[in-house]
Amino acid sequence: MQKNFKNSSLFTGLFSLLILAFLANLALGNVLIPLGDVCEILINQTHEKHTWTYIILDYRFPKAIVAILTGVGLSISGLIMQTLFRNPLAGPYVLGLSSGASLGVAIVIMGSFLLPTFVADFLVNDYGILIGAFFGSFLVLLLVFFVASKLKDTMSILIVGLMFSSLTSAIINVLTSFSSAEQLQKFTFWTLGSLGNLNQNQVYLLTIVVSIGLLLSFTIIKPLDGLLLGENYARSLGISIKRTRNISIIATSILAGTITAFVGPIAFVGLAIPHMSKLIFQTSNHKTLFIATLLLGAITMLVCDTISQMPNQDFTIPINAITSILGAPVVIWLIIRKKGIR
Amino acid sequence: MESKAILKTENLNIGYTSKKGKIEIAANINIELEAGKLITLIGGNGIGKSTLLKTITSIIPALEGEVYLSDKKIAAYTPETLAQNLSIVTTEKLPASNLTVSELIALGRHPYTNWMGNLTENDFNHIENAISVTKVDHLKYQKYSEISDGQLQKVMIARALAQDTPLIILDEPTTHLDLFHKVAVFKLLKKLANENNKCILFSTHDIDLAIQLSDEMIVMTEDFCVQDQPCNLIEKGVFDTLFKDEHIVFDKAHGKFIVR
Hints:
The structure holds two protein chains of two kinds. By secondary structure, chain A is mostly helical.
């Protein structure tokens, strides 16, 4: 079929772009490393210039992996939420999941003074932050879901998401006034977020957890297609709405929660990438959209990260600023273009 | 006792359960739907047609009584086997999406496909058949959001057909259509019932057409719910009781309502 041919050539194109973006991400930065040398280092794990080997293998390669995981995870969770809420403007950041994760982390880092020291020591580490972020985003998503079931209007759901964001940041403000300078510093560093601050163990942990989230998401590709017809039709097709909803909630909280825990709140990627996939592939078929979103999410984060490390300059820009600068106009354009969104 | 009925209700009471308790809309409904028959459900606005359809399609639970699908309680079906026995077309507006007509019809194969939703040769045959019977070939590659209401109604019927179920239940499929499309939908459903041996039940306000084309009718009023062939219902004068207004009178000779 013609459409299949068109899709597979698009996929091939995107895949080549991904490899290009990956190599460019490794090569560009305040030290420029020629592409040939980048490939040599990747293949042989060594090079005559030890600083280059060090920069690529210990810094840029793990960072590129984190960028890919972040892009992929946030975009897939956005795609699931858009179908589930029947809302083209849904996404982990817009609906307050990222703020929920922030609150969870804030409670773990700054609220631990309420607990005995040995419990606090047990909690304030990678796993504690991970669990805090997961439950934070999980709870916000449950609340948004509860409100969404009472409201049919898609715009109100977004406003509710916004309210949850304000509420969580207010609670975080309250927490900061009670916390010690050391805790505050730790939390502030976390909120700045960065793809490059993860140690090897954290990269492994992120890889495992994001993979679990993605595997869970893959199991609901079929029911999500059915949900395109609305809940009653989906049910009449033998789809268990409850099961689909539960898996979606867990998968998106795992993805958005852990990513936020490790790299900080990243705006708009989860909202804009699924839209780009829908625009490019002109389909609603989730199998196609999943692959497209995976590829586009990875490419976009790699490109954003390459911009943020400012090739040939001595400074970097926070990744969150780049995604917002690129993502916010996309959202505004979407709202203007689709006046009929309801 | 083995009955020919595909769907049967026994002393069914329908309505909603809310915090304040049960709100009963209609009681004591006994209907039987048989294969190969086109059955229409008529009644005034708010009499409970949609509630009845929702109850017998297991969207909302019955307040009392039982619904049997092929001699088995409908509540005992798993969602998947129910989907292989019963398909629906509702009045619900579809959420916005990029689905094309053929993709939408293909979703009808959901109860039969594997976990990834991959379509087999057999699935494609069912889809093609549904498309050709409903004559929507020319719309195949269009997005469903870009076709007219009348066309969309046919497409939704094609989707139900692709689901390959002995029983199809539709809620007001002819509303919002002009006379030409109303007749087209009626005739299509009639053909599906009589030639493809489907059992088709649908609610409608087009009583004149229903009297002419249906094999059986179910008439709901505030006091009773009766099922029979249209001519028998006319004989019994059931239609006179349909509307509580002396200005609307049923003309037995012509089989239609007149306003005085």
